[in-house]
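Cross-posted from the bioinformatics board.
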Amino acid sequence: MTSPVRLALLGCGTVGSDVVRLLHEQSADLAARIGAPLEIAGIAVRRLGRDRGDLPVDPALFTTDPLGLIKRDDVDVVVEVVGGIEPARTWLVEALRAGKSVVTANKALLAEDGATLHDAAAEGGADLYYEASVAGAIPLLRPLRESLHGDRINRVTGIVNGTTNFILSAMDATGAGFAEALEEATELGYAEADPTADVEGFDAAAKAAILASLAFHTRVTAADVHREGITEVTAADVASAKAMGCTIKLLCIAARGADAAGRETVSVRVHPAMIPLTHPLASVGDAFNAVFVEAEAAGQLMFYGRGAGGAPTASAVLGDVVAVARNRLAGVHAASESAYADLPVRPMGEALTRYHISLDVADRPGVLEAVAGVFARHEVSIATVRQGPAGGGPDAELVIVTHVAPDAALAATVGELRGLDIVRSVTSVLRVEGGA
Amino acid sequence: MTSPVRLALLGCGTVGSDVVRLLHEQSADLAARIGAPLEIAGIAVRRLGRDRGDLPVDPALFTTDPLGLIKRDDVDVVVEVVGGIEPARTWLVEALRAGKSVVTANKALLAEDGATLHDAAAEGGADLYYEASVAGAIPLLRPLRESLHGDRINRVTGIVNGTTNFILSAMDATGAGFAEALEEATELGYAEADPTADVEGFDAAAKAAILASLAFHTRVTAADVHREGITEVTAADVASAKAMGCTIKLLCIAARGADAAGRETVSVRVHPAMIPLTHPLASVGDAFNAVFVEAEAAGQLMFYGRGAGGAPTASAVLGDVVAVARNRLAGVHAASESAYADLPVRPMGEALTRYHISLDVADRPGVLEAVAGVFARHEVSIATVRQGPAGGGPDAELVIVTHVAPDAALAATVGELRGLDIVRSVTSVLRVEGGA
């Protein structure tokens, strides 16, 4: 048989351990699929002493010197499952420049500074694969960067963070508030002790940047992504959504558009939004992920599965390992980054969105006229107005859903509404997605 | 710029016309993604005179000599969208042996005799891509043959025929019978004048063979697939399913299993089945397709989108064209067929299934005992029995759902029930899938 393809594994936490386990369990199948066996050359960890249970691997393979491991002549492929910007970037650049293939699950690094990695890969003539960085086990990056390359993607809408989807699903199911639902998620292990990266949308924003880069052949970084988390979503918002036949999801949205001069642009954003229950993303519950793609010719597509967890992420990592190992044996490497389109990323204010706005207003004649006037001044067109039950008090409820308008105009409209005498309070403001 | 990659297009019907249109509309993008422009060298059609509307192509490119076109030195890639076994097989074998890459949407040929094509591809050192052959625009084959190659697929369950899904969705929504729903589908253009290939499950069976081959690294042909269509699904069946919290779908199922000696096997089948409304496949309505994949490490995945139509199919064809054109420029070809596992395909009788059986029985003591005795003799374990409303007459209704058992034992059980004195009639027999 052909001589083995040798891997350096950087990191041996939840995902790394499952990579080791799967490499062991599937070794015969993997060898048959690649045409050569896979072997672990070494595993870089922070501390050698840690108990790693019954991991099926020679303890002598562990090392605390990742750079030394990467530089070894007998290492062909570097698998990085440590995460974070540094030292991961230094390691991967070193590997790629030396012509070693890299498989990584590091979404933060790819979203912050993917360009450096892609440039190093081009320089070293090496493969850079990162299926596991977005939506865990769901085959998504390969479809986007290969299957749909004959088509024109117009919009990608995804639920790409399991923690926030669990929390919002719980709020929807039980009527609980955010704090209570977060507590439940933490108890059940769906939220980390410090949930900031998830609930503030940082994790989803990194994935949005990666998806947008692939979908639009344009370098998009995390800094380009407008980001709002779910900490301010209230039980009242969830109830408003229900009344509209909708549910609230934290969406990442990457959409093609045009600026005032008609030049093509993209907008990339992460925020909670109402989507109708009839939308395929609405039924994505618990910690599942799904990505909805709208393409010119293909129409609507959806990819659904587990977005996190050791085994699902390890599955995506190993799929990439098989691909780069095959390329290596064939003496080729995959098409490098495709960023030819280089579209400008427009600011959130120019993104076209729709708002759902609930207002407590004085229950007297002329109120609707005054409110409608504010919308008109900002050139925001109203789709529906619903007058809520007055409840016997001096107030009435107005629920307004707009047509699509620039986000800045919608935000300014809400700002001016807050200042109106007859508006007691703006009780809920949510964007609406999915053609409700 | 690099010299163009030149395509021979075989067939110019619905899909072929959309391929021509997209090649024209997206030419700048396609060239940027490939690194070279795509050019149409010729289009083989049956008749030259036909009006092809405003197809953006030089009429001089049309020819009625497909073999002559394929053999031309300036043809690099052959795109076949004619369908059927012959003459398509002769053409594609000719192309592949000559080292020309082939992109085809021909599910019937791949399912009947994929081996001949794969062998010709290996012989000629050429690419054979066929994403469009299963589930139209949904990127499915590339995820199966690449993304999940580090994992072990246990089961693939798909809705892969839009016509039958439209019919069953209509029956479910309106309570109509099969004939009436078929008529509606024909009127709306969802069913062809001769709907046999769709409603008898031939189309789905071809796709099942292709999916099973990729999922299990085993050559599976259409002849290996157990096939039942939907012509015998009645309004009463649909009502029974509803009463169970289920809906009826025509499913293609490819599952790993084991024979009596514990050797690994696969079973591949197409038949209508009840699935619970909570299953992700249950909400796949109208003419949409979806494929649900269960893998060891990745867990549950679903791929959803348009399974047919000119533009969606053309999108899949062009995605493949970009891939083979890139390979061509890089001087490589993709990994060939992976059939190393070569698992035996076991007959339907050995497949493990569950049955839902409705019986009209005499309403008298001892009936349940007698019925239960039949199940016990065939070693079929009963999961639930529901005694229907007797309706005041001399009969009662029994609704029985079994646990998993070999299909032959279940079929034999039903056969024996039909012969029992106390059983007036077996009113509905349906398999149950999706863990209801």
